[in-house]
Amino acid sequence: MIKETLTSIKELASRAKISHHKAFTAWYAINLHDLDEDEALESAAMDGGNDNGLDLIFADEASRTIYILQGHCGENHSKITSKDKWDGLVAAVPFFEDTSTLRANGKADLADHIDTIKKDYEGYNIAFGLISLGLFNEKIEKAIQPTKKSYSAKNYHFFYQHQEKILTEYKNLIDSETGIASDTITFVGNYIQDEGKYGRAWIGSVSAAELTRLYDEYQNKLFAGNVRLFLGSRKGGINEQIIKTAKDNPGLFWALNNGVSIITDSAIPDGEIENKLHLKRFSIVNGCQTTNSLAQAKAGDKAKVLVRVIAAKETVKNDVVRFNNSQNAIKIWTVRAVDSTQEKLRKSFQEIQIDYAPKQSGSRKKKSGEIIELDRAAQFLAAQDSSLLIQAINNKGELFDQPYSKIFYPNIEAKTILLAWKLGLACDKARIEQLSDMSDDDESAGLFAVAATFWIIFIAHNIISKHSDLSSTHITLQKINTTPIDNFIAKISEQAVDIFYTLAIDTYGDGEEFGSHKSTLRSIKFLQKIEKKTDFKVRNLKKVQKLENICKGIS
């Protein structure tokens, strides 16, 4: 992979006439963030001797994040990355916040570029990252958490990606490319073209035989961008009717069916065969049931279906999937489940045999083994953050809209998800046990309703984060998935329940200030009071086990 990557970087440098160092940062943004190549090269070209560590700045609209990268390609890829590179990245923060110094140093283009991005993408998350083709440096990894905690950088994300991590992500990306790499589709008769803010589209009739050909060749991979796989032809179901129509009245099929929608990166007309398009990286996003049913019916050329081929912009692809499936009440988190962030996480969880955020595939799919549900995992993660706690309680669907990129922040790791998942389940269990111990006439029992789980998660996460080093390299996905960690989390959850019980009763008082128990657990004012008290309680806890120490003892 390193040879393949260096070859790709070399070709990019040669074509753009830039150094390998500049080409590497551009390559990273192009391949791992889908940044337009011209935009990446233009931004990388601003890199110079007095750029103050601001090698590449760009906005990732899909994740709603502004990235500031410090890149390191180097000559010897068997050496570890120098800690100085991380220090340079951290030192770049003030220059990003105030560009006047860059202008004074003769970097007006870079200053203008930063100011434009900050203005055009106001409200986006901001992430500073060191990317390096050098080997892993533990000192850099250790520096991330203290940097995040510093007052001046508290509003930013910081991350470090070394050679192994970059190459692994790149390989996973290649292995899990969405949809079909390339093929063709041929229309029956003429097709029409359209163009708009969404991109471009080609609309026309396609024979059942053509769709069946694609299905026979690729099977479910053809629907990689679909949030739902074939639901089956249950007796009396809609798919049974589709198959019956295709068999008995193929000539009517076009008029009775809603059609098929295909998302593609590009569609190029064939130079020789009329009405034939060459598609790159494409997937059927609506029409899975129709395509499967036509293949089962073996309708051939007798049946036709309306097909839309859409070359959509990256920023609207998820919306196309979501609204194309709106007639079946697709929830927004099932759309997010197929984005690149979740695909990477899903790949990591496969290594420990955990089914993470499975794509919807029909209610009759038999569940086996442990499954992490994306909507609930997002609630558990959001509950750890005081700014999202109330939203996690009131409307989990909204977590997948504006706050999504904050919850599933840049380069979030599977171990973070698994820890949050286990902590969430343990806190819910501890809440139920506490509630069962309370008498039926205990008026405070309402403070331990289901919503209390998320308050307990908030306190439990505070205990762990303040008494453990979550950046420790000893904390791994594999070690979190062990009994000793389960026992540790159970103890933390019990402590969190005790703290919440004490603080909730004391803060609620006679209830005049907050109203009902239900409204209290959804009150920002209640949160503000609890948060201050929680910080004091947690900091003064004695003999709290450190997560990293437990992980050290796990072989």
Q: Can you tag this structure with a few keywords?
A:
single chain; alpha/beta; Restriction Endonuclease; six-stranded mixed sheet; four-stranded mixed sheet; 12 strands
Largest sheet: 6 strands, mixed
Count up the domains.
3
Strand order within the widest beta sheet:
5-9-8-10-7-6
Gross morphology is: globular
Count of strand segments? 12
The secondary-structure class comes to alpha/beta
Beta-strand proportion: 15-25%
Rg value: 27 Å
Please count the helical segments. 26
Helicity level? 40-55%
The CA-CA distance between the termini, in Å, is 30 Å
Low-confidence stretches: 227-238, 360-369
Average pLDDT figure: 84
